[in-house]
């Protein structure tokens, strides 16, 4: 049974884009995934995003993706929204993943902008619409032109928002002006997909976060959001500023790399990375410890 939701917060408010734990030999660690998901929900997440960029989706198989969704649903599906990443640059493949996620019991879908092939806006519209038509699950768009090479233009977002299954957007565009217009014109539930902009995006109408740093600072993120929504902007700003070293440190290199290193420092499941991602160097590990400590993270 999925947790309750509202049109304003269809997937909850504080979500972490979870890493995919692997065993020392590089296999999928489903027990570790269940333990990590439980830890994240206990810390205050009301949603978990699986099989996204932070979940190393480019290097996990279709079967692994489905197995991960089932395992995490079993562990925390009654307490948190479980969102399955199904975005690829191949619409037919994305539809296949979407249907598999629905059959596995996922509560919603995350669909990233197609990458590498750089479709025009009409291609984006048809791609997202085809995925949304393929299942009965609610869909969160994921706009991250820095990775995909193509933004979802505001006009396209407004068109997509007319689809009854497209209910939210994860914004990693880094443009507060465009976000403001898109929120005002689309009425989509808006989620920050850029931790440094979590608080600024709340100020222009976002309802929550899909976070990477939530692996290590979920209670602080929730406190910041609750302070802001209660009207205590000063407190929210103080928390934001306290977390600046964490926001910076976790993205000095690719976020999965630093996240798995941080989890390892805390004795939590994460395990190795799959190539082409590589472990932090000793110097990078030292810097990450400094950054996390400066942000109040206990290691």
Written overview of the protein:
The chain starts with 13 loop residues before the first strand and ends in a 5-residue tail after the last helix. Helix 4 packs parallel to helix 6, helix 6 packs parallel to helix 7 and helix 9 packs antiparallel against helix 10. Strand 4, helix 4 and strand 5 form a beta-alpha-beta unit. Strands 1-2-3-4-5-6-7-8 form an eight-stranded parallel β-barrel, surrounded by five helices. The protein is 47% helix and 12% strand. The protein contains 13 helices and eight strands. By secondary structure, it is of the alpha/beta class.
Poorly predicted ranges (pLDDT <50, ≥5 residues)? none
| Basic shape | globular
Following the backbone from N to C, one meets helices and strands in this order, namely: EHEHEHEHEHHEHEHEHHHHH
Give the CA-CA distance, first to last residue: 35 Å
Content-based structural category: alpha/beta
Average pLDDT works out at: 97
Oligomer: single chain
Helix content: 40-55%
Give the neighbour order of strands across the main sheet. Answer: 1-2-3-4-5-6-7-8
Query: Which radius of gyration do the C-alpha atoms yield?
Result: 18 Å
Please give the largest β-sheet: 8 strands, parallel, barrel
Q: Tell me the number of strands.
A: 8
How much strand?
5-15%
The total count of helices amounts to: 13
């Amino acid at each position: 049974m999925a947790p309750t939701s509202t049109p304003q917060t269809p997937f909850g408010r504080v979500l972490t884009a979870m890493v995919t734990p692997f065993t020392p030999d590089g296999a999928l660690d489903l027990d570790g995934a269940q333990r990590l998901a439980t830890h994240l929900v206990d810390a205050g997440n009301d949603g978990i995003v699986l099989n996204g960029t932070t979940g190393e989706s480019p290097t996990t198989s279709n079967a692994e993706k489905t197995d991960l969704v089932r395992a995490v649903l079993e562990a925390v599906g009654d307490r948190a929204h479980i969102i399955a990443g199904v975005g690829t640059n191949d619409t037919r493949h994305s539809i296949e993943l979407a249907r598999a996620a629905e059959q596995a019991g996922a509560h919603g879908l995350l669909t990233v902008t197609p990458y590498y092939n750089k479709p025009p806006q009409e291609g984006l519209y048809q791609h997202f619409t085809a995925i949304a038509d393929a299942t009965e699950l609610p869909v969160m768009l994921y706009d991250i032109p820095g990775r995909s090479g193509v933004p979802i233009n505001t006009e396209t977002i407004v068109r997509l928002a007319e689809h009854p299954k497209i209910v939210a957007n994860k914004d990693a565009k880094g443009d507060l002006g465009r976000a403001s217009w898109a929120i005002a014109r689309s009425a989509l539930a808006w989620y920050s997909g850029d931790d440094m902009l979590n608080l600024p995006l709340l100020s222009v109408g976002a309802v929550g976060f899909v976070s990477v740093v939530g692996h290590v600072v979920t209670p602080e993120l929730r406190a910041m959001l609750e302070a802001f929504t209660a009207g205590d902007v000063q407190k929210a700003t103080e928390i934001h500023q306290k977390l600046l070293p964490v926001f910076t440190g976790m993205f000095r290199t690719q976020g999965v790399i630093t996240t798995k290193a941080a989890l390892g420092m805390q004795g939590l499941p994460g395990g190795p990375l799959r190539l082409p991602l590589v472990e932090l160097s000793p110097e990078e590990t030292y810097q990450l410890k400094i950054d996390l400590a400066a942000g109040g993270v206990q290691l």
